[in-house]
Amino acid sequence: MQKKFIFIILLLLLIANFSYRIDLKKSPHGLIGELMYFPSGIALRALSVGFYAPIADLVWIRFIQYYGEHRLTDYKFEYLYHILDILTTLNPQFLHAYYLGSLMLTHDAQRPDQAKMLLKKGMKANPDNWPLPFYYGFIHFVFLKEYNIAKTYFRISAMKPDAPIMPKRWAAFIVYKKLGDLKTALVLWLDLYNNTENPEEKAIAELYIKNIKMELDIEFLNKKIKEFTEKFGSKPDNLKELITHKLISSIPDEPHGENYYIKNEKVYSTYKHDWQIWQKAR
What we know:
By secondary structure, the chain is mainly alpha-helical. It has helices spanning 2-24, 28-35, 41-47, 52-72, 80-90, 95-107, 112-125, 131-142, 147-158, 166-176, 182-195, 199-232, 240-244, 275-281; strands at residues 260-263, 266-269. The chain contains 14 helices and two strands. Strands 1-2 form a two-stranded antiparallel sheet. Strand 1 (260-263) and strand 2 form a beta hairpin. Helix 6 (95-107) packs parallel to helix 8 and helix 9 (147-158) packs antiparallel against helix 10 (166-176). The longest helix is centred in the last third of the chain and has 34 residues, at 199-232.
């Protein structure tokens, strides 16, 4: 037993030292090079001789560091799935790794295929868990627009023990509501925002809530510009003319704190951050 304890301490020190050496790397390319040699989850599980939890915790810290560094620099997440796969092999019940990881893989890494693999792995390891099939359906609904698959997994989620009304509500949305409708997507993101306690998940949901509200505002203002043109025979020079001619009572507040403006007879926002990612996800 003493030999086993010494062995696991040495293994933890090895992983901690490995992470420390990664942090010393100034070049993102150097960081990726180090992660290529990060042991597989199966290898670490075999080496850990039963001490899975403390090693999984270290890998989780490494995951957060890796995500944060690339979120602030090059926005490349080549090894995000690799780290999550290691973590969930070490500890298949590390549920936040599946929830948060699937959103990050889809939203940040633009790899919904990897997000689906991660969630399927989680569903196999945690068959009674309701959020895992819900997240799987959520990704198919919001990002991939594959509504039949989304409906199936929302229904699977609804049948799990202790499942709330939310998955059943979203299965019904797909059946009865207009698919791909921005207002429907907004309600779903609000549902996720209000039902998660994880700050990173909330941040991703908040971004999409603001972007959808912005899209809805732009749709509304473009319709009012069309009404203005039909009524007065010319396009408005600016949005204030819509107020002057009583087509709107006020210009909507831009959700990101930016401004709406008219360019080439269409409404745009001065908001730019993450716009390419948003357009791909839509």
